[in-house]
Amino acid sequence: xxxxxxxxxxxxxxxxxxxxxxxxxxxxxxxxxxxxxxxxxxxxxxxxxxxxxxxxxxxxxxxxxxxxxxxxxxxxxxxxxxxxxxxxxxxxxxxxxxxxxxxxxxxxxxxxxxxxxxxxxxxxxxxxxxxxxxxxxxxxxxxxxxxxxxxxxxx
Length: 155
Prior knowledge:
By secondary structure, the protein is mostly helical. It has two domains: 32-123, Winged helix-like DNA-binding domain superfamily/Winged helix DNA-binding domain (Arc Repressor Mutant, subunit A, Orthogonal Bundle); 124-155. The protein contains six helices and three strands, in the order ααβααββαα. The protein has a three-stranded antiparallel beta sheet. Strand 2 and strand 3 (87-95) form a beta hairpin. Helix 1 packs across helix 5 (97-121) and helix 2 (35-46) crosses helix 5. The longest helix is centred in the first third of the chain and has 27 residues, at 3-29.
């Protein structure tokens, strides 16, 4: 296996381990909610006037899939939809009090994950961080260009 293949394999393995480890805690705290629902709540909480198009682009999902998820979240009492006075066509979402509570617990769990990993990150130098960030940003731009070449609209 060459280094390029090794990097891809190691990134995938790292991401899978990280996701699996975090998922254990998330599932125990968020029974009855999918990971996508919790992360949708997070995005709505972070972005005022969230709409289907913005959420679809963030999740790399169709607007139809987001619409379906939003309906479930509305039914569960976690978000509500509204229209802005200056744009009666666009449907936006905001968190309810229950949604804000889920978002708060989710943020606390992410803080606990950061604390768990803090000792490792304290050993990383600025130069190492810069090199890793440079590579990740470069690779992300490359993938964005590949997506654009396909002419596929993400929403």
